[in-house]
Amino acid sequence: MKEEEEMVTPGEVLGKGTELKEGKGAYLSPHNNTVYAALTGRRSLAPPSPESPDQRPTVEVIGHKAHGPVPEPGCVVIARVTKVMARMASADIMCVGSKSVREKFSGVIRQQDVRATEIDKVDMHSSFRPGDIVKASVISLGDARAYYLSTAQNELGVVSAESMAGGTMVPVSWTEMQCPLTGQIEQRKVAKVGA
Q1: Does the pTM exceed 0.70?
Q2: What span, in angstroms and rounded, lies between the C-alpha atoms of 100 and 144?
């Protein structure tokens, strides 16, 4: 069996970090030193260059030709919140960096990843509402095929939100946005604009 022909899907184990270097379409999980696939495609191994001090082969996942950008740990994404629960919010990832995605990627913002301070006091319903557009960074692939997202930086959080009355709200503080139609103030985890 040729290594190149093996098909893998996101979250599939490609090997140990001690034996392989992660290339495009793969990422290393530091807590168990394991390399995982970040996208669907063919697993490919590239031998190290003879003069390289690191003699581990590089494992890559070569996606389909029509593949758009794929969320990877550390990158910033734009997502639309679909559901808000007591301990987490679900979102559909729309853009990776400045590029729009071509396939559906799901994200989850957990209660502990909303902000950097007073984590135990975070109220998910005061942070996000369904329909909000959020800027978040990718922590990891997470589980159940959903990426774990974080808004725990000043420049991350809600960048655009519609009020109950249907107006596009204006940020007035780190935690509040105001409806221009009614003057009503709603709670949100607001992203620092211009950061």
Answers
A1: no
A2: 22
